[in-house]
Amino acid sequence: MTNFQQGWGAGPSARYDELAAPFRPIFARIRENAVARDLEHRLPEEELSWLRAAGFTKLRLPPELGGQGASLPELFALLIELSEADPNVTNSVRAHFGFIEDVFSSGDEAWRSRWLERVAAGQTVGSGHSEIGATALGTQSTTLRREGDGWIIDGEKYYTTGSLYADWVGAAATDEEGEVRLVLVPTTAKGVTILDDWDGFGQSLTASGTTRFDNVALDAGSVKPGVDRFPYATGFYQLVHLATLAGIARAASVDVARHVSGRQRVYARGNGFSAAGDPQILQVVGKVRNAAYAAAAIALKVAEALQRAHDAQFDTELGEEARALAYDLSELEVNQSVSVVSDLVLNATTVLFDALGASAAKRTHGLDRHWRNARTISSHNPRIYHDRNAGQYAVTGVIDRTRPSVGIPTEEQKTA
C-alpha cells in the first residue's frame, strides 16, 4: 500500500512509489521486531545488512554506479518511511548519507571517484565528528599528522552514531597546520576501538558512543582534500532528524489506532460502548495522525530547499552571490521548521496515551519509545537557537552561517 493510499499524501516525485517498492518489505521486517530490539538492547546489525544488500545505502548514486539517482526529496521521503519502522536505523545511516553529499561536492576528481566506487561497492560510513570533555569551542582535539606518504590519527570521539555498523568512521581531526579535516578511518584498522556505551534513554540502538583512535595509520586517500564540507551540510544533517521525527509520529499514529481498534474495555464516563466508537477517543487518535501528516509535509518541503542548494553548487550560470543565497535560504527553511516539527511530534507522542488506559504504559507495548526517541532527537542542536536564527532573519535579513559545534570557550573567544 502506498503512502497516498494510507492518507499520507503522494510522494515527492512521479516515480517515488516505484523507487520505494523494493524497500517497503524491508521496512516492514525492520518494524516487526522494533519493540523487542528496544527492550532487549539488540543492535540492528542484521537490519542494516538488509538495507545494504537492497542498495538503500547507495540511493543517491547514479544508475551507472548501481544507485537510483534519488533526489533529496526522494531520499528524505524514504527516511521518513524507514523511521516509521525504527528511528534507530535512520540515525545509524545519517552520517553515511551526509558523507555522500561531501563526495559529490569534492573538486578533487581522484578522491571523488575513489569514494564513489567504495560506496557503490556497498561500503558505509559512520560518524566521528563530536567530542566531549574540555575540547575548546570550534576545535578538534583529535589530531592528524603526516607520516611518510600517509597519515596518523589520534584522539577520542563521542556520539559516533552508526560507526559500530560501518566500514569507515568519517572523523574530524586537526592537521599540523591547525585546519580541521575530514578523515576516513577503517573501523577494522589497528588502534581503532568502537564502544557501545551510549546510555541515552532514547535512540539507544544507534551505537552513539565512544570511538578511540590510537596511533592509527592511514593511507593518503583517507583524508579529504581541502577543508570545506558540502555547503548545505548543517541543514542536511538537521533535516535527517526532522525526517526521523516525522517517521516516529507516523509509527505513533499507527500504534495508537491499532490499540484503540482492539480495545474492549471502556470507561463508565466514556461516550460509547467501545473505544473505537467513542468520539473523544477518536479525536485523540486524529490529533496524533494530524501531527504525523504535518511533520512529514514540512520535512519534505524543506527537502526541496536542500535540493535547490545542491543544484546551485553545480549550476555554472549562477554567480557566487546567488549560490550563497540558495545555501542560506535552505538553512533558513530548516531553522523555521525545527521547533514546529519537534513540538508536533513531542506532543503527539505524549497525548496518544490519552486515548488508552493505564495498560498502555506496559513496556512490552513499546509506546513509550516513541516519546523517548523523539525527545532524544529533539535535544540535538537545541531548537531555541533555530528559533533565534529564524527571528534574526525576519528582523535583520541576516542568516547566521555559524556551523554548529560544542566545546569550552577559550579566554580569547570570551574577550573577542
From TrEMBL:
Residues 133-216 form the Acyl-CoA oxidase/dehydrogenase middle domain. Pathway: Sulfur metabolism; dibenzothiophene degradation. Its EC number is 1.14.14.21. InterPro entries: Acyl-CoA_DH_C, Acyl-CoA_Oxase/DH_mid-dom, Acyl-CoA_Oxase/DH_mid-dom_sf, AcylCo_DH-like_C, AcylCoA_DH/ox_N, AcylCoA_DH/ox_N_sf, AcylCoA_DH/oxidase_NM_dom_sf. Residues 240-380 form the Acyl-CoA dehydrogenase C-terminal domain. It catalyses: dibenzothiophene + FMNH2 + O2 = dibenzothiophene 5-oxide + FMN + H2O + H(+); dibenzothiophene + 2 FMNH2 + 2 O2 = dibenzothiophene 5,5-dioxide + 2 FMN + 2 H2O + 2 H(+); dibenzothiophene 5-oxide + FMNH2 + O2 = dibenzothiophene 5,5-dioxide + FMN + H2O + H(+). It is found in: Cytoplasm. Keywords: Flavoprotein, FMN, Monooxygenase, Nucleotide-binding, Oxidoreductase. It comes from the Bacteria. The keyword Nucleotide-binding applies. Its main location: cytoplasm. Residues 29-123 form the Acyl-CoA dehydrogenase/oxidase N-terminal domain. Belongs to the DszC flavin monooxygenase family. This is Dibenzothiophene monooxygenase. It comes from Pseudochelatococcus lubricantis.
